[in-house]
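Handout, section 3.2

Students often ask what a structure token actually looks like in practice. Rather than define it abstractly, here is a full record for DNA polymerase IV. The first block is the sequence as you would receive it.
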Amino acid sequence: MERIIFHIDVNSAFLSWTSVENLRTGRGPDLRLIPAVIGGDQSSRHGIVLAKSIPAKAFGIYTSQPVAQALRLCGDLTVYPPEHELYRRFSRELMAYLKSLTPDVEQLSIDECFLDFTGIAHRYPSPVQAAHSIRDTIYARFGFTVNIGISSNKLLAKMASDFEKPNRVHTLFPSEVPEKMWPLPVGELYMAGRSSVQTLQKLGIRTIGDLAKADPALLRSHLKSHGETLWRYANGLDTSPVAPNPAPAKGIGNSVTLAKDAETRQEAHQVLRNLAESVSARLRKAGQMAGSVCVEMKYADFVSVSHQTQLVTPCRSAKELYRTACGLFDKLWNGAPIRLLGIRASKLTAETEPVQLSLFDPDMKKSEKERRLDKALDAIRSRYGKDAVRRGMPPKSPDS
């Protein structure tokens, strides 16, 4: 039996989920019906657009646009800050519903997933009717809409779900590729980024159909292995399975777009302290130790930079992550206003793996004290919320 794969994608997820919560609690309007965006802060005019309503799109507002620019395009624009805890709750509820239909669900991000329909196809008259039923149930149960793409592989199902929105069901089977996919601009192909598109256009490749008919050797000479991947995708070729159990994470991190640009070292260090606490808690939850730490930064002019270092001994201590991150930051920062900061831990190892101690290790009694403190903080936050307790900020530097 031919595989049938669904790609389910929430329409403008952050804006939709905020709207549903507004209507449920009576705290605000349905943002989907007015010019509105999620992102940044309306009073400070900082941040970027994370999600937009259809009325906002009519003003030329787009995702990733600076909020200040969006406000210039639409003076009556309503701006709501992101509510990540709320979004995680909606995501969990949606995934729980889909997994009640079949365990063969692979979550791709907070608002989209693949569902292998093959094993439950016998329950429905057709895949299209099943998709309509799932879409309608999601709206009736949760109050937001989704697009569902249907195909025999993950790539084409994802491409199909990106067709006309919102609240639509589309098919894109291999036999439909020449008609439905090949006429599209090459930039709409999954994994065709801006740099790749520029290279392809210089080669005279402007549509997905042009790419599908191109010589793979030519693509390889200009884009290396990625050129071959794009050629396969343009021809609708993909054999990857739906993987309900995700592969072990290669890294654990957290970043934040600041409501107000950080302009001093102390402001940036405070943000890094909060990020270090978050990454440390995630490492402990995953039972992992970090062998490398990276700090990423985006300036107010959207220039991005990063710097990383390898740790002498793998750790997950919030204090050690913070100390390392501040050291990296101090080497990296050029003094310009900062819009985004992030910390990422990589080269992960299981906490049960033996660790080779070094002559340069900090005092072991202090390390054990830190581990006990982290454990105590985890217990308090688990019971009373993540903001129930915070560490004090050092007066000058992480080493003071």
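Discussion prompt for tutorial groups: The two ends are 66 Å apart (CA to CA). How would you have guessed this from the sequence alone?
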